[in-house]
Amino acid sequence: MIEAFDPGALLSRTYMLPRGPRVRLRLARPSDAPAIRALAAEHGIEPGSLALERLIRFDPRRVVICATALIGAGEVLVGFGAIELQPGAQPEPVLADERVADGLGGLLTAALSGRAEAMMRRRAA
Predict the structure, then answer these.
(1) What is the pLDDT of residue 19?
(2) Is residue 14 left, alpha or beta, with left meaning phi > 0 and alpha meaning psi from -120 to 50?
(3) Domain range holding 56?
(4) What is the pLDDT of residues 85-102, one digit of tens each?
(5) What is the CATH number of the domain that holds 20?
(6) Among 16, 62, 81, 113, which is least packed, fewest CB within 10 Å?
(7) Buried b (16+ CB within 10 A) or exposed e, 19-29
(8) Which residues contact 37 (CB under 8 A, 6 or more apart)?
(9) Helices 33-42 and 49-56 sit at what angle, rounded to 10 degrees?
(10) Is residue 88 part of a domain?
(11) Model confidence pLDDT, tens digit, residues 54-88
C-alpha cells in the first residue's frame, strides 16, 4: 500500500504496482463514462445515467480520479474513485480491477485522500 502520496505528481507519472502493468492516474473526463459503466458492471453495480453523469461532470466540491493502464494496444480504464472535498471525507466509491493491477485500490484511495487534502489546504490559505 502507498503510505505517502505526492498529489502534485498525480498527472505527471506512472505507478508500478506489486503485480500487473504500470498505471497512470488522471482526473476523470466525460469520455470515461462507457468505461466507468463497464467497470462498475463487472463489480455488480449498475449506475444510473444521472448518477454516472454527476460522477464524471466537473464539480469543485469533489475530485474524481481514473486509473488507466496500457493493455494490449491501447489504454484501458482499470479503476476509478471519488472523494468529496470536506474535512474527514473518505473516498467513495473506489472501484479497481485488482485482477489486472494488484494494489490498485490502495493506490487510488491514497491518491484521492492526498489530492483532497492538498486542495483543501490550498483553498484555506
Answers:
(1) 83
(2) beta
(3) 16-124
(4) 999 999 988 999 988 888
(5) 3.40.630.30
(6) 16
(7) ebbebbbeebe
(8) 47, 52
(9) 120
(10) yes
(11) 888 888 899 999 999 988 889 999 999 999 999 99
Tell me, yes or no, whether 3 lies in a domain.
no
Tracing cell 491501447 back to the chain, one arrives at 74
Rounded mean pLDDT, 114-119: 88
Q: DSSP string of 58-121?
A: --TTEEEEEEEEEETTEEEEEEEEEEESSTT-----EEE-TTTSBTHHHHHHHHHHHHHHHHHH
- Asked whether residue 11 is domain-assigned, the answer is no
The answer, yes or no, to whether residue 2 has pLDDT greater than 80, is no
Indicate the pTM of the whole model.
0.85
Residue listed under C-alpha cell 463487472: 42
As for how many domains the chain has, the answer is 1
| pLDDT band for position 1 (cuts 50, 70, 90) | very low
CB of 103 within 8 A of CB of 17? yes
pLDDT of residue 63: 92
